[in-house]
Specification:
The protein has 323 residues and is α/β, with parallel strands linked by helices. The chain contains nine helices and 16 strands. Helices cover 26% and strands 18% of the residues. The strands form four sheets. Strands 4-1-5-6-7-8-11-12 form an eight-stranded mixed sheet. A four-stranded parallel sheet has the order 13-14-15-16, with helices on both faces. A two-stranded antiparallel sheet has the order 2-3.
């Protein structure tokens, strides 16, 4: 008996076309639906066009609406798996947000395309077919949200876009893919050990993300003291170190009760409280800055948006970011 798979379309390049001016635009609402006949040999597929957004238009609030739409769909029908088509620019963020918050216990796959639907070598159709195969495979259970792209399977927590145009753009630095899509089978060779799950009601927290650079001026951050922000994520140097000039401003934010999460701007490794000089990681940890366990900046921001609904206590947040 065929597995029942829900394909939720949200837009992106997979649903775009190149026009006569060679501009790529979201003109083709039916681009993904045209692939449906090729999917039916792998599963009983139901297509739902929920959004048609370029992924730079995606927001945490829209991600949360997508979560609610999927959970509502499961209240009315049973599906054995979900595939979500999405633009690639923010695909990793939506995948990770859903990994943290979606309560549906079936395989959940996010995919997209680097080439629009009417380009030569369009990668959308094969990515969608591979994703349906992965969603219909029982091995995909309990893996969390996965991203299927270019015949590889990646965990949402680790995957990131690494190239502006290459079809092999999605990679998992330090960890690699957790599986592959072969001609006749879906093959897993490892999986994430743990999965976090948070019950939320909204995704409206105001959490900026800033990146440390050499010679950073404190004036660049002063505007944050005047804003109503709920938290802050800082991409630090190396193991987790910052220019000393900005430390007083960060201390003022902490004194106002604003939690600050530290990640590294390096794409391998994680921040640690090692260096004991002004702006060094050990001093930052002593200030009360929260160290993240290997997330990149954009994902740490989403995790803070989610976990702030559970607690605003710095120590409790640190425990959650240790996971």
């Amino acid at each position: 008996m065929s597995k029942k798979i829900l394909v939720v379309n949200t837009g992106g390049t997979i649903a775009m076309s190149v026009d006569d001016s060679e501009g790529v635009k979201p003109l083709d609402d039916q681009a993904v639906n045209k692939i449906l006949p090729f999917l039916e040999k792998h599963a009983d597929v139901t297509m739902k066009n929920v959004l048609n957004l370029p992924s730079p238009h995606m927001t945490p609030a829209i991600m949360n609406q997508l979560r609610l739409h999927i959970e509502e769909a499961f209240q009315h029908d049973h599906y054995d798996g979900i595939v979500i088509t999405h633009g690639t620019d923010t695909l990793e963020e939506t995948a990770y947000f859903l990994d943290l918050t979606l309560s549906v216990n079936v395989p959940i796959v996010v995919t997209g395309a680097m080439r629009s639907s009417n380009e030569l070598g369009a990668d959308g159709p094969v990515n969608l077919i591979s994703s349906v195969r992965a969603a219909a495979d029982s091995q995909s259970l309990n893996k969390g949200v996965i991203v299927v792209f270019n015949d590889e399977i990646h965990a949402a927590r680790h995957v990131t876009k690494t190239h502006t145009s290459n079809v092999a753009t999605f990679q998992s630095p330090q960890y690699g893919p957790i599986g592959t899509i072969a001609k006749k089978s879906v093959q897993y060779h490892h999986a994430p050990l743990d999965r976090e799950q948070y019950a939320i009601t909204h995704a409206d927290a105001n959490v900026p993300l800033i990146k440390a650079v050499a010679g950073m001026e404190p004036a660049w951050l002063h505007f944050l003291l005047e804003q109503s922000i709920d938290g802050l994520v800082v991409e630090a140097f190396g193991l987790g170190n910052l220019p000393p000039a900005i430390i007083p401003t960060l201390q003022q934010l902490l004194d106002k009760g604003v939690p600050i999460v530290l990640v590294s701007r390096c794409y391998n490794g994680q921040v640690q409280d090692i260096y004991d000089y002004e702006g060094g990681g050990r001093k930052l940890k002593e200030m009360g800055i929260i160290f993240s366990n290997g997330l990149n900046g954009q994902k740490a921001r989403l995790k803070l948006i989610v976990t702030l609904q559970k607690t605003r206590d710095f120590k409790e947040l640190q425990q959650l970011f240790d996971q």
